Amino acid sequence: xxxxxxxxxxxxxxxxxxxxxxxxxxxxxxQGHKKVIKKAIAIAAEKKVTAAVMTFNPHPKEVLRKESxxxxxxxxxxxxxxxxxxxxxxxxxxxxxxxxxLSPQQFIDQYLINLNVKHVVAGFDYTYGQKGKGTMESFSFxxxxxxxxxxxxxxxxxxxxxxxxxxxxxxKQGDSLxxxxxxxxxxxxxxxxIHGEKRGRTIGFPTANVEAAPKILLPAPGxxxxxxxxxxxxxxxxxxxxxxxxxxxxxxxxTLEVYLFDFEEDIYDEFVTVSFxxxxxxxxxxxxxxxxxxxxxxxxxxxxxxFGISSE
Length: 312
Prior knowledge:
Family: Belongs to the ribF family.
Structural class: alpha/beta
Domain Riboflavin kinase: 182-308
Protein name: Riboflavin biosynthesis protein
Pathway: Cofactor biosynthesis; FAD biosynthesis; FAD from FMN: step 1/1; Cofactor biosynthesis; FMN biosynthesis; FMN from riboflavin (ATP route): step 1/1
Function: Catalyzes the phosphorylation of riboflavin to FMN followed by the adenylation of FMN to FAD.
């Protein structure tokens, strides 16, 4: 997949390959996003042009409202997932105040017509231009018939619309199963293994302390059945997110620690991806280390059951 980074103002007159483009921020790339992207890929195949995605970075709320955003996915993860879906060209537009001030007409002229986009695909609630004044209903007017458009209706799970906001809410509630249904796969957190307190090894459960990528939302505190992807394999385990109240009284700093089954290797400074399959329990303050160890053993057995691993 070719990646083209665009910074406003972009140069006009450059030659861009004709493309069908899916438009959106695509945080998390949930089921609704995939429907939009796959539709764009299918239309591109019919028209024998390039299948493209146009996304934006950073999140608009960070620029327009000066608020920090809880991201579901890093830009690098987004690139990998889009490539795996079959996207051939990715436009990453730097979202800035100058870019946000473009009128709907200017956005289409400068970022779609100028880039030789022949057909766009977007969700029913996609907006563009200053203050989101442009909608899919007004697209044909602003494109003046030069670009075709396909609107994809909302994707629902039961009665709830699948959205990045809905995924965040599920994760904040610790409902990793619901998040996985919305995403079409378990929620992932990427990060680097760093040195921690090394207390786990003293109680028989050595853990990998994962420093999550900046601004990425972590699921609610608790213990989860997880799979951790290393550079050469994937290993089942249990993860704890929280402040370790059994050992700390006034600790407000959350950590992500993963106990990998049947694993004793040194993986400090390695890049890992932790996939959250199911929440086993919330974080508990135990009265003793012995109580903690006993409960961890139960957590391990439950995770083994979830993954179909025999503990015999």
